[in-house]
Design brief:
The protein has 393 residues and is an alpha/beta fold. The chain is built from twelve helices and twelve strands. Helix 1 (12-19) crosses helix 12 (362-378) and helix 4 (120-131) packs across helix 5 (143-151).
Amino acid sequence: MKSLEIFSGAGGLAKGLELAGFQHSAFVEFNKHACASLCENFDAGKVFFGDIKDFDLDTLGGVDIVAGGPPCQPFSLGGKHRAHQDGRDMFPYAIRAIERLAPKAFVFENVKGLLRQSFSDYFEYIILRLTYPGFIARPGADWKDHLHDLRSIGALPYAGTRYDVSFKLINAADYGVPQMRERVVIVGVRADLGAAWSFPAETHSEDRLLWDMYVTGEYWERHGIPAKARAPIPVTLNEKIARLKGKYGMFAPEQLPWRTVRDALHGIPDPRSEHGIADHIFRDGARPYPGHTGSDIDWPAKTIKAGGHGVPGGENMIRYSDGSVRYFTVCEAKRIQTFPDNFVIKGAWGEAMRQIGNAVPVLLGETIGRELMHQLSARSGLADTRPVCRARI
């Protein structure tokens, strides 16, 4: 099955979908450094460097899935919170791609801030536009007028393509990514396919990590850490550990443990040693400051971030049990985002970290992609009855 990646970034979601079995038709990306990364890791002839407004969707053949991460700055908790008033809001162009291509499914990822109460009407508008991509606004109507009509669509004529759309706030740590990363994932499946989409069940849990650390000690044994060097139970977790024992008794929680920074970096040498790894270069000058103390080595990393005014280094540091800190190398940040070690991120440290921070964790993309592939493959014998729609936004 073929996929179109829009707002591709460095290609985290694209790599995950590739591992799930999808074949790329094209990549659309505006940032030159991210395009360089895409060209390094995928077919460079399929990479469109430029504004999505200038990409000709009609040059593509059949596309089964459209995927990407529309720029999140309009909705970011750390941004200006302007949503539809922000010129960086690219959701209208994501909707245009769905309208023009009528793919079997789509996957979009965005920041948690998209679910803020102040954005609720606009988020509802996004979901309804994705559900009925061919329902065009009346001449002169703004988005609020269009939302009003979409809410009443059951009483209005509509013969265009319809999608069953679901969204979920996902913590990537619950799917085996060694990072506390909460993002909204939106999935739509074309209604005529009759596929019953549901998000994959979580595979990893905090309960199991705490159990392996403080009930059985298996976590420390796995890493060969002697008892005297193990982190003590934080006072804030004493009651939680006690409840775990009462809840599960003699049997461990069924899910796998959350993966920690130590788990992710297993086998990577100290960056200050002689190692020959091109993107594993030690960067000096890491300093903690209030609210930005780095990621504990024995816990899932804090969200790898990419700020609008440069990389906020406090979030991109590793903190050891003795309180010392240092910056993650690019190689290590890739592990945190579950990129393959041989995936090349172009650019200097700050730019590379920006790309990594903006990416969808590869493992999360693969997990969602495999479920989509399963659902779509199960319906592949059905005739394609989608209506052709060439209306414009």
